[in-house]
Amino acid sequence: MHGCELRDDGTVTGFLRYGYDGREFMFLDTQTWTLIPQMPQAENISRRANSPDLLIGEIYRIYLENECIGLLKNHIEDGREDLERRVQPKVKVTGQEKSGMTTLHCLVYRFYPRQVEVKWMKNGVDDVPSYEFPQILPNLDGTYQIKVSVEVIPKEEDSYSCYVDHSSLKEPLNIVWEPYNPSVWIIPLTIAVVVIVVLGFGGFILYKKRTDNHRTTNTPDTSVEFPNNEHTA
């Protein structure tokens, strides 16, 4: 197995490793450019490879600094769009309470590139350890997602937030979890019910008045005038 790396400062490094039966057989020391045996069976082979008439390490150095780096630069140029692509993450925090314990979930999704830091914070400082090992999973559109969950026993004075740091962000996100409070909905719900009742009653009264006016307007005059048959003696 071998590979090369072009660092930000322009320097080049690489590796060359041989394996046998699931173990490392020998590797190339890139300081001395010689093969170092890792098993007794590799000693004769490495000695031969490092001999002046072969100099395998020197041959690899030439390959590393020329052909391998050239191929790497071509791959970088071809994939520059993907390398420079940045998609900011979306974050959703939720909580589930059971038996006095609250499980907090922080779902971070639709972000690119893959590398991201996600953790739960207590009161903005303490790092709350997750009860499971979170995994970064791929989406069908090429972005990624991760969910970090913790179990806590929240107190009234405590605040929990999900900290997210990603290369697409100018500064890290800190999304605070808001506990569910049923009383928050009581007043708005009561007001809404009262408004609906008042509007409904008002509409009924208006409808009743219009109906009564319509009946009065369309009622015909059915009065009959009888002649006076009384005679004076």
UniProtKB/TrEMBL annotation:
<dbReference type="GO" id="GO:0009897">
    <property type="term" value="C:external side of plasma membrane"/>
</dbReference>
<keyword id="KW-0472">Membrane</keyword>
<keyword id="KW-0732">Signal</keyword>
<dbReference type="Pfam" id="PF07654">
    <property type="entry name" value="C1-set"/>
</dbReference>
<dbReference type="InterPro" id="IPR036179">
    <property type="entry name" value="Ig-like_dom_sf"/>
</dbReference>
<dbReference type="InterPro" id="IPR050208">
    <property type="entry name" value="MHC_class-I_related"/>
</dbReference>
<keyword id="KW-1015">Disulfide bond</keyword>
<dbReference type="InterPro" id="IPR003006">
    <property type="entry name" value="Ig/MHC_CS"/>
</dbReference>
<dbReference type="InterPro" id="IPR007110">
    <property type="entry name" value="Ig-like_dom"/>
</dbReference>
<keyword id="KW-1133">Transmembrane helix</keyword>
<dbReference type="InterPro" id="IPR013783">
    <property type="entry name" value="Ig-like_fold"/>
</dbReference>
<dbReference type="InterPro" id="IPR001039">
    <property type="entry name" value="MHC_I_a_a1/a2"/>
</dbReference>
<comment type="similarity">
    <text>Belongs to the MHC class I family.</text>
</comment>
<dbReference type="InterPro" id="IPR037055">
    <property type="entry name" value="MHC_I-like_Ag-recog_sf"/>
</dbReference>
<dbReference type="InterPro" id="IPR011161">
    <property type="entry name" value="MHC_I-like_Ag-recog"/>
</dbReference>
<keyword id="KW-0325">Glycoprotein</keyword>
<dbReference type="GO" id="GO:0006955">
    <property type="term" value="P:immune response"/>
</dbReference>
<dbReference type="InterPro" id="IPR011162">
    <property type="entry name" value="MHC_I/II-like_Ag-recog"/>
</dbReference>
<protein>
    <recommendedName>
        <fullName>Ig-like domain-containing protein</fullName>
    </recommendedName>
</protein>
<dbReference type="InterPro" id="IPR003597">
    <property type="entry name" value="Ig_C1-set"/>
</dbReference>
<dbReference type="Pfam" id="PF00129">
    <property type="entry name" value="MHC_I"/>
</dbReference>
<feature type="transmembrane region" description="Helical">
    <location>
        <begin position="185"/>
        <end position="207"/>
    </location>
</feature>
<feature type="domain" description="Ig-like">
    <location>
        <begin position="89"/>
        <end position="174"/>
    </location>
</feature>
<dbReference type="GO" id="GO:0005615">
    <property type="term" value="C:extracellular space"/>
</dbReference>
<keyword id="KW-0812">Transmembrane</keyword>
